[in-house]
Specification:
- The chain has two domains: 310 residues, Up-down Bundle (Outer membrane efflux proteins (OEP)); 84 residues, no CATH class.
- The protein has a four-stranded antiparallel β-sheet with strand order 1-2-3-4.
- By secondary structure, it is of the alpha+beta class.
- The two termini are 40 Å apart.
- Helix 3 runs antiparallel to helix 6 and helix 6 runs antiparallel to helix 7.
- It contains eleven helices and four strands.
Length: 460
């Protein structure tokens, strides 16, 4: 018994720690964690933020730039020295002395300036802004698609880990039953009711179940780690998983609704279309490089022999037009490159449309097949339970061997595992169907808490 401060602390925390330890991870919590921490989501969000910054940078073609300059210049250059004195507006008659003009003393000039530059007409910058805006929207839609794909992967990993846990529990129950039958067979052999070979065969059958259990336990540990990685938290595997999958009726209802669901524009297709629009705008930018540019500026200057931003203020305003008539082959190469990128983006947009069409057809077929397997597995389980019960009664009456009994139990266990496998396949196929329709697979959150009280997973 624990005593002292540590024991007292554990006694106080026990009511809190027990519920936390017993808390079962739900799909809702899995999806929330994946949305925040999954690697692909974080990378996509970072890429979208970077693209947003590039889009913001194109505003420099429309917004003024303001800067302040300051400096100190010392010179004995005749023109520079005279210019400093003139800028400082301290010219006197003595400054025109030829000797002083030719051999001036060291002249110091503290300069200060406030400069404002305002773009007026820059056609290439306008096109660049349009291209960047399309790319920003494409990045946003790509991020949305990554989130959808991540949610599908999280659903697959969550129910896959749950399925692995259920397999372990099912095989543990089967192994306990097999060991009980082996013990009974060994006792019967001692009493002369069965041959020793029957007891040995029963032990072999139990060993087969134990081998499957060891494999299932390893698979369950791997599945749990895979789920943690899918959520972006590989160091956190100290969570409990449900002991049963969602109710078959709830799975079938959600699947039936997804089969005939109405699609909406998928985020990946919209992203491809936005990328294609961006390359079209970029082609105009390349052509606009040959257009004239017109920009304006205004500045205040201070010149003083004593300190910065002192003395009389001078102002200058102006408008500048520039036209790059020929820049070697640079503009031509840029137009060729943007044309190639536009063709590539158009092909990618068409490919995204075609893939979306194919996904719609394949996901529908896959979900229909999964539903059919679920129906068959449900019916097969009821039949296997009856078959096992019949063999059990025959065994109790001495009309069946222990090997036949173990074979019947193994058959029922196999069907139970096939049923939970069919449940899992249907849930995953539903998530894939929702993704193909352009819908959010997080709608499967409704499956949380729908496990049947008397599930076919529970042996009567």
């Amino acid at each position: 018994m624990k005593s002292g401060p540590l024991g007292a602390l554990l006694s106080i925390l026990a009511p809190v720690l027990v519920p936390l330890r017993a808390q079962v991870l739900t799909l809702d919590r899995v999806l929330d964690r994946a949305d925040r921490s999954a690697y692909a989501v974080r990378a996509a969000q970072g890429a979208a933020d970077a693209q947003r910054a590039q889009s913001t940078a194109t505003l420099r073609a429309f917004l003024p730039s303001i800067r302040a300059d300051a400096g100190l210049v010392k010179t004995t250059d005749p023109i520079g020295a005279f210019g400093n004195t003139l800028r400082q507006r301290i010219i006197t008659q003595a400054d025109f002395d030829p000797a002083r003009l030719n051999f001036p003393d060291v002249s110091s000039n503290w300069t200060g300036a406030l400069v404002i530059e305002q773009p007026l007409v820059n056609a290439d910058a306008v096109a660049a802004r349009a291209a960047a805006s399309h790319m920003q929207r494409a990045a946003q839609r790509s991020t949305e698609w990554v989130v959808i794909e991540t949610r599908v992967n999280a659903i697959r990993a969550y129910y896959g880990a749950t399925l692995a846990t259920i397999k372990v529990g099912t095989l543990e129950a089967a192994l306990r039953a097999a060991h009980a039958h082996v013990s009974q067979a060994e006792q019967s052999a001692i009493n002369g009711m069965v041959t020793p070979s029957d007891a040995l065969l029963a032990a072999v059958k139990a060993g087969e179940v134990e081998a499957r259990l060891v494999q299932a336990q390893g698979d369950a540990a791997s599945a749990k780690l895979a789920l943690a990685i899918a959520m972006g938290t590989p160091a956190d595997t100290m969570f409990a998983l449900p002991s049963v999958l969602p109710a078959i009726r709830s799975i079938e209802t959600g699947a039936a609704a997804a089969i005939d669901g109405h699609s909406r524009p998928r985020a990946d297709v919209v992203a491809a279309a936005e990328s294609q629009e961006a390359t079209s705008a970029d082609r105009w930018r390349a052509k606009a490089l040959a257009f004239p540019r017109i920009n304006s500026f205004a500045r205040y200057d201070w010149n003083s022999p004593a300190r910065v931003f002192n003395g009389d203020r001078n102002w200058t305003v102006g408008v500048m037009a520039s036209w790059s008539i020929f820049s070697g082959a640079a503009n031509l190469a840029e137009r060729q490159a943007t044309h190639g990128r536009a063709e590539q983006a158009e092909a990618m947009r068409d490919a995204a449309d075609a893939k979306a069409t194919l996904d719609l057809q394949q996901s529908r077929s896959a979900l229909q097949a999964a539903l059919a397997r679920l129906t068959i597995a449900t019916r097969a389980l009821a039949q296997s339970i009856d078959a096992h019960r019949i063999v059990g009664r025959r065994y109790d009456a001495g009309l069946a061997s222990v090997v036949e009994l173990l074979d019947a139990a193994a058959g029922e266990t196999q069907i139970r595992l096939a049923l939970v496998g069919a449940q899992y396949d249907t849930i995953v196929a539903t998530a894939e169907r929702l993704k193909a329709l352009g819908l959010d697979p997080a709608a499967l959150r409704i499956l949380d808490g729908t496990a049947e009280v008397a599930s076919p997973n529970d042996r009567p």
